Amino acid sequence: MSISKEEFRRALSRFASGVTVVTTKDNDGKLFGITVSAFCSVSLEPPLVLICIEKSAGSHHAFEQSRAFVVNILGENQQTISNHFASHSDDKFSGISYRSGIENLPVLEDALTNLECRLRYSHEGGDHTIYVGEIEKATINDGNPLLYFQGNYQKLDG
Fold first, then answer.
1. Do 122 and 67 form a contact (C-beta atoms < 8 A)?
2. 113: which residues sit within 8 A by CB, 6+ positions away?
3. DSSP 3-state assignment of 55?
């Protein structure tokens, strides 16, 4: 017997995670972005990462259609950007600074790190789809990450 959704959320809230905004575009060229904490490294050789996108998310179809995505790892002062991309706004890129990356995907300016990825695999994952991408380009900046723990944003203390 599985645990309840509430117990699952409470248990997993005890795991601190970094905060990312993952961007892509659909077949019509419309840009999409979503705040994602379900992100991790998979392999060093080749350099693979994975993201998990909820199937009910308004951007899910774009990730299904696209052969690429960008993981923008947010810095400690980018809580506003995280909230913006977590919202249900129709134009998530209004007022957001970005440049074009692989496949003309939006790469957020001033992120702690940008990982431009080609989709290699997708897998069913319950109410999410798991996308595995191979990193083609990385932009790395100095700073501390934005963290999420027990339902709140956190900063490194040190």
1. no
2. 71, 72, 73, 138, 139, 140, 141
3. coil
CATH topology assigned to domain 5-151 = Pnp Oxidase; Chain A (2.30.110)
User: Is the distance from CB of 106 to CB of 69 less than 8 angstroms?
Assistant: no
pLDDT over 70 (residue 158): no
110-153 pLDDT per residue, tens: 999 999 999 999 999 999 999 999 999 999 999 999 999 999 99
Tokens of 102: 């692989």
Q: Where are the alpha helices (DSSP H) in the chain?
A: 5-12, 60-65, 79-86
Residue 139: phi, psi to the nearest 5? -115, 125
CA 156 to chain centre: 20
Q: Would you kindly state where each structural domain of the chain is located, as residue ranges?
A: 5-151
pLDDT tens for 12-60 read: 888 889 999 999 999 999 999 999 999 999 999 999 999 999 999 999 9
